[in-house]
Input
Amino acid sequence: MSLIEIEHVTRLFDDPKRGSAVKALDDVSVHVARNDFLCLLGPSGCGKSTLLNLIAGFDKPSSGSVRVGGQSITAPGADRGVVFQQPTLMPWLTVWENVAFHLTMQGVGKEIRRKKAQHYIEMVNLKGFENHYPSELSGGMNQRVGIARALLMNPEVILMDEPFGALDEQTKMEMHAELVRIWRDSQSTIVFVTHGIEESLALGTHVAVMSARPGRIREMLTIDLPRPRDSTSPQFNDTKRRILQLLRPEPMAVPA
Ligand SMILES: Nc1ncnc2c1ncn2[C@@H]1O[C@H](COP(=O)(O)OP(=O)(O)OP(=O)(O)O)[C@@H](O)[C@H]1O
Output
């Protein structure tokens, strides 16, 4: 059984201003196995975030079903950690307090919170910054705090919506290496939204290439390139070319 099962999902959004509806997803079916690293790749507006939000439980499909671990998703849950493009940290809390934020909400004592936070702070390579505030860190470091916060809940699935979109190329590449290591160490399952072809190939075990309006899965690719991924290798570039072909707009049917 797959850990995540998305079956024939359609999501329509009402557009009352225009008296119509937007079909953000159209009959999307995706299965994600435990320990997979799935990248959802496609142009702006193809429904990547909509699909991620359905798995997170922030939204419900108009038709079809979304299950994680065999359970139908109706709301957010501790089995799914979410990392957004902006790390949404509390500016008045230190790094370790931000990482342990969910435990504070659960009324867990300070000593246990501190200890648990430390484990994940070290996992994301932020040792020494425990008592810094978000404003004292770089964008990449803040994003790592957000990742540590999601990992601390030990979720079965980590959902990431363009988490490195705001970072410069150099930092992004460092974060890719870091995230692959974290994914391996924590043996988690990741669904990662991106519009970057190279990013999807640097990270994923699978890439779901989506097409725009209505959002559909054009193809699910298995990426079995050796790690660390070498973006100059012929195999990497062959796969990149294949994805570029898939991302080209589908030709309109020509009347006979
Ligand atoms: N809450 C909403 N109400 C109305 N329309 C919506 C809503 N959320 C998304 N949409 C529409 O659904 C479509 C898919 O949006 P979505 O944000 O999922 O795309 P995306 O692939 O994540 O785009 P981007 O890469 O630009 O973030 C778009 O046409 C968008 O306008």
